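Session log. Operator J.P. requested a structure for one protein chain; no other inputs attached. Running the standard single-chain path with token output.
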Amino acid sequence: MAKTPLQMGWEEWLSLPDLGVSAILAKVDTGARTSALHASEITLSGPADAPLVQFTLHPVPDNDAIAIRCETPLLDRREVTSSNGETEQRYVIGTTVAVDGESWPIEITLTDRSTMASRMLLGRQALRDHVTVLPAVRRLQPELNYAAYETLAADAQSRPSLRIAILTREDNYTTQRLVDEGRARGHKVDAIDTTRCYMAINTLAPEIYYDGRKLPRYDVVIPRIGATITPYGAAVLRQFETLGTYCVNGSHGIMASRDKLWAHQILASAGIGMPDTAFAASPKDTTNLIELVGGAPLIVKLLASTQGKGVVLAETRKAAESVISAFRGLKANFLVQHFVREAAGEDIRCLVIGGKVVAAMKRKGAEGDFRSNLHQGGTGEAVKITTQERRMAVKAARSFGLGIAGVDLLRAKDGPKVLEVNSSPGFQGIETVANKNLAELLYREIEARKGRVVGLA
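Structure written below.
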């Protein structure tokens, strides 16, 4: 005789005895295929062919002082799309669910549900053959409570809210500000030298190692990857992305922003105004190349130039031909660009965080230098930007998928032009000029994204 399925409403109490969870209130959702469990501080251990996943479970909403540390075999890594359309890589474990004296095995994914009302979601795969769902009611099964967890309450102040890695090689002003501000806000922040990371690439348990040890599972990575190591830094970042880690700036956006030709193609496809730009490989095209940007004066720019290095102003056609010939002789990849004379050696740096311009400054080149970069001796001052400039900066950062970006604009006769999108903008100059705590603004955006709002110390 077939067993009568349990009846459940849209919300029910249950337990997970294999994980030491005596009571948890779960949302029962037949619209979701996959079950999910709130987990943080996720790490892997054991051999690559039989890895164990360790994680911390906070079963009581709004009380992260109650924590259960779990360890169980890892079954799989799976791409899951949530109800809001976001896709992430999740670890999959097997466990037992128990309801009113009955129990059965289920697969469940580990994810961050800190912003959800329920710390667990029971999807239809876990329900079939065992449960009939009555979606109009709730709590048909016996009531449980959290009393058993009282002895697990720990000092919440001793546990950082987020585990954050800053991927960088430099102990400069920006890195130190990010470390200090993050720790002041209660997060555990590690500054990691990108070049000392190495990777184990496999299907089930890809890992990142650092100085001979396996890195822990980070909630967030803030990449500060130097231009000289862009390809390797992007590879390390892709490994974090494979693990499902939230990266403030993604590998694709960083790679694109560092390649001047690719970057201008992205700006053009997004309909963003920029100085006329041309590129060619053959020396036979030099004359046409110059004409395409309106003739001399013009800018000749290496594709991998940064901080104003590898950027040359050719005042005359003869000078332009000479510079282009020299760059070709060095087998260097470059582009030519219209020189916006009316900008008078000035540009505007807009710092975009989370789709908003949070600070702006006008930069002016040193005496006799058309480049306005602070690294080349330029100076900065406060500036008020127009609505058009603000919208253009936000659109440019969004076109590269960057959570934080420095967007450089020129003020031309026919409107603002985007000169460059920087995926690792420094804070020192603009933070001083704008008189704003930019590190705090970045962490507020991260906390909102991860659902962890932390008060200032």
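Operator note: The first strand starts at residue 6 and ends at 8.
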